[in-house]
Design a protein that fits this description.
It is built from four helices and no strands. By secondary structure, it is mostly helical.
Length: 133
């Protein structure tokens, strides 16, 4: 692998790292979406974009702190650990970064766009059809 800082094989440890990162990313996404659900139930007068913005702001510090502390530990293990763990740790480091980014900046906008399209479809469905006279 030319982009890797060391030689690495895709083995069971690498697969375990990928599965761990998927779970980590899903957990971050669930936390953000749960906060959105909570704010939707508490603040009925807020628009969807305001609700999502406040939800992201309230979970941002938790998400970043969790990810940064995890990355610090993984980097320490990567630098000072055994060579046999480097592939696993490299996959975990990259995965935590990508997972945190996707939870905050990809999953939430997709949910917003989907909700907006659903609202537009509902409003079109609810309008009475004008019949030709």
């Amino acid at each position: 692998w030319k982009f890797m800082p060391f030689s690495m094989e895709i083995d069971q440890a690498f697969i375990a790292a990928i599965l761990t990162v998927i779970g980590y990313s899903l957990n971050d996404t669930v936390v953000v979406f749960d906060r959105i659900r909570e704010f939707l139930n508490e603040h009925h007068s807020w628009s969807l974009d305001k609700t999502i913005n406040h939800s992201l702001n309230s979970t941002l510090s938790r998400t970043l702190n969790t990810s940064l502390t995890t990355i610090v530990v993984l980097l320490a293990m990567f630098i000072f650990g055994a060579d046999s763990l480097r592939g696993l740790l490299f996959a975990l480091i990259v995965g935590v970064i990508v997972g945190t980014y996707s939870s905050l900046f990809i999953a939430t906008p997709i949910m917003y766009d989907t909700a907006k399209k659903g609202d537009a479809a509902e409003s079109l469905k609810d309008k009475p059809k004008e019949e030709d006279q």
